[in-house]
Design brief:
alpha/beta, Aspartate Aminotransferase, domain 1, 36% helix
Length: 393
């Protein structure tokens, strides 16, 4: 029996009523509820535009693809994209699917985001894209990253799928790059069943995202737009005119309706997670041999990472075994050091310029437990007691 789950539902009767309204209306494909959610999400993030899709993974795919179809300085196959060594696979896959070469960079052992020194050393004339990942709710140091980019022609993308609601100097994470991506999967800050969002302030990229989301056709484009030269909406074939090699990654109306209700609750959900994080830091911050994630800006605390350092005389696996036996659900820190996965043989990449030592440590010694939108002080005390047993056994 689980005493502390990794994830739990954030729904109540509001979401169930929203689902029923869509069912009663009989329109289930992308429509007015999705459009309203997009407008509200753009307002929440302070972005000009938001495009909802069927998952955070699809959001990453469209974000990468859009950069290949813009008019000025489009990306082309063969360019290099810098990525952190610790992330989820769908950070990496769209890049190689569009012919980019991955350059893995180590993460900071405390923040779990880009190690800035390693990032600086990885930037050269072949680099055209940096894909920053805000891990476990923690925003990157974007002021420092922008300084490293300087005047170079390098695009910054932001995988913010784990950090909805995080801020840095008052600015929402996910809004520092050309496009930011979000996830509304079950275990994330809000849930629309499956779902993802791209945000951007660039009108051309917005129109490209709209086009790519649905088959590459013109049907969902506003007029005027940056992709078509004349208003052909009266033409018989206009609803079936295709201008880009797109996908079908549209969300359902159900997801849009649920998202509207979830967005109303998002500020309070984030506040609760931050209160829980303070309790977590107070409880676990002084446990010898256990290292926690160091916050940059104001994290939205997707989960709580713990790294078992060698001095405790126990392995991560031994600690996790005790926690699981006591009913504490835990998992690796995202996917650990992704460079160590067999799938790399299919992904064009550079051999890392320097050891991915911190990513290796997270892979071998790290794990995380969940965070939630309710008061978890009692459960965290039970987790700490279980951890103490694991370390003393």
């Amino acid at each position: 029996m689980s005493i502390y789950p990794l994830a739990a539902s954030t729904w109540d009767q509001d979401e169930l009523s929203a689902i029923q309204r869509v069912v009663d209306g009989g329109m289930f494909t992308m429509g007015k509820h999705v459009q309203e959610f997009e407008q509200r999400f753009a307002e929440f993030t302070g972005s000009r535009y938001a495009v909802m899709v069927n998952s955070g993974s699809s959001a990453n795919l469209l974000a990468v693809a859009a950069l290949f179809y813009r008019q000025k300085r489009p990306l082309v196959a063969g360019m290099t994209a810098i990525v952190p060594a610790v992330s989820w696979p769908t950070t990496y896959y769209p890049l190689t699917q569009y012919g980019l070469r991955l350059r893995f960079v180590d993460v900071d052992k405390e923040t779990l985001n880009f190690h800035l020194g390693s990032l600086e050393r990885a930037i050269d004339e072949s680099v055209s894209l940096i894909f920053a990942v805000n891990l476990l709710g923690n925003p990157n140091n974007f002021s420092a990253i922008q300084k490293l980019i300087g005047g170079r022609d390098i695009v910054l993308l932001e995988d913010n799928c784990e950090a909805m609601g995080a801020t840095l100097n008052g600015k929402q994470a996910g809004t520092f790059g050309a496009i930011g991506t979000y996830s509304s999967f079950f275990s994330h800050h809000i849930s629309t069943m499956e779902g993802g969002i791209c945000v951007t302030d660039d009108e051309e990229l917005y129109h490209i995202l709209l086009c790519l989301r649905a088959h590459g056709w013109t049907r969902n484009l506003p007029w005027p737009n940056t992709l078509t030269e004349k208003d052909d909406r009266g033409d018989f074939h206009e609803l079936w005119r295709f201008i880009l090699p797109g996908y079908n990654v549209r969300p359902l109306e159900l997801s849009g309706a649920i998202g509207i209700e979830q967005l109303k609750k998002l500020p309070s959900l984030i506040d609760s997670r931050r209160i829980n994080a303070k309790h977590f830091q107070d409880l676990f911050g002084n446990v010898p041999g256990i290292r926690l994630q160091r916050e940059i800006g104001d994290s939205s605390w997707f989960g709580f990472s713990l790294v078992v350092e060698p001095e405790v005389g126990k392995t991560r696996d031994q600690v996790v075994a005790t926690l699981r036996a006591d009913g504490v659900e835990c998992r690796p820190i995202v996917a650990g050091n992704f460079y160590r996965n067999p799938v790399l043989k299919f992904l064009p990449h550079d051999v890392p310029q320097e050891p991915l030592a911190n990513a290796d440590e997270l892979h071998d010694c790290g794990f995380f437990i969940g965070n939630h939108h309710w008061d978890v002080r009692v459960q965290l005390s039970a987790v700490k007691a279980s951890l103490a047993r694991a370390l003393s056994a």
